[in-house]
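Action item from last meeting closed. Structure (357 res):
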């Protein structure tokens, strides 16, 4: 590069202009250019400014059942399904409606024992603990209260008992078949109130710090023309090890049933990051563990000060700067690699040099 036109007299003044700034990073040295030299390098600058940072987060999710409105129906004894009353998925059921009839030898024997105790009630006190225990055992096995009252009234045992729906809703899964052997581990029906559903979305680990309960989002559901406005209602407490994502939940009203569980959803959120200083992405040189910018002072001569900075997130084409810069300073956005090479070269030369040679 050409020698400094004015000898070394301006050198001291160049360093004097940086006395209020931090020392140059290790391995770097300040530089001084005459205006013509800066122009030849195509040196361009951009101001360090303060702005409100927002981050657009886009991810995907799925419509799922509202777990707080869903029931999984099992029997509590071994037996066989004698007959089916609710026999297809999608059927609407009421709370307490019979789903199927179960024959169980355990229930049948317990009912016979209960009747035997009833027959002996005349010779026993009204508060006979054996009779109360027998009645309670039938109740704990989900024999309907109406069936127990019928036994007490008619004194006749039915071969089967009805398995009742624990809630009102829609049958969304059914495994029950007539004649099938069942045991407590078998799930016979899944019943859910579809007037409210959830959307579960996957937020990548890098975006997790910027998502909070109460944040607004837009949900584009496949098959619907317009996106839906929603609010983050819950953040799951773990990160999935395989996908490195955290589940985010949205609760949506679904009075007309148009949101179908399993539907694909595109989620867009605007995360507010607060105010901070920013520099263009093009101004930053990443050197492994360090991030360097070149702060430009003056116009004749032009003083270039290498400075290590701490970066926050990249938002659009600008980095948020956590420290080491001030609003209004100018940073080089062109010829940084030439500046980087020359600054490193000057740092290895004799002390006291700062001019470009």
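Sequence:
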């Amino acid at each position: 590069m050409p020698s400094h036109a004015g000898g070394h007299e301006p050198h001291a003044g160049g360093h004097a202009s940086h006395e209020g700034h931090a020392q140059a990073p290790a391995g770097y040295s300040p530089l001084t250019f005459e205006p013509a030299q800066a122009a030849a390098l195509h040196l361009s600058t951009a101001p360090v400014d303060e702005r409100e940072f927002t981050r657009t987060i886009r991810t995907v999710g799925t419509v799922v059942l509202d777990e707080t409105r869903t029931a999984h129906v099992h029997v509590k004894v071994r037996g066989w399904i004698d007959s089916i009353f609710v026999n297809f998925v999608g059927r609407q059921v009421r709370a307490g409606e019979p789903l199927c009839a179960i024959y169980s030898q355990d229930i049948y024997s317990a009912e016979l024992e209960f009747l035997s105790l009833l027959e002996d009630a005349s010779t026993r006190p009204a508060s006979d603990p054996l009779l109360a225990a027998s009645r309670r055992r039938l109740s704990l096995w989900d024999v309907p209260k109406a069936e127990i009252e019928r036994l007490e009234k008619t004194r006749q045992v039915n071969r089967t008992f009805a398995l009742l729906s624990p809630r009102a809703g829609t049958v969304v899964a059914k495994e029950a078949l007539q004649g099938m052997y069942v045991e407590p581990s078998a799930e016979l029906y899944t019943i859910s109130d579809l007037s409210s559903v959830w959307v579960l979305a996957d937020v990548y680990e890098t975006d997790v710090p910027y998502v909070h309960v109460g944040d607004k989002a837009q949900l584009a559901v496949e098959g619907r023309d317009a996106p839906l406005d929603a609010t983050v209602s819950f953040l799951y407490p773990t990160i999935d090890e395989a996908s490195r994502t955290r589940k985010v939940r949205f609760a949506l009203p679904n009075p007309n049933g148009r949101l179908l569980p399993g539907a694909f959803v595109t989620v867009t959120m605007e995360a507010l990051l607060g105010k901070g200083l920013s520099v263009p992405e093009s101004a930053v040189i990443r050197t492994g563990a360090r991030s360097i910018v070149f702060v430009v002072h003056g116009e004749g001569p032009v003083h270039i000060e290498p400075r290590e900075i701490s970066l926050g997130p990249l938002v659009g084409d600008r980095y948020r700067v956590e420290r080491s810069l001030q609003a209004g300073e100018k940073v080089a956005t062109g010829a940084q690699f030439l500046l980087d090479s020359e600054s490193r070269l000057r740092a290895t030369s004799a002390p006291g040099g700062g001019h470009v040679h």
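Note appended to the action item: The radius of gyration is 38 Å.
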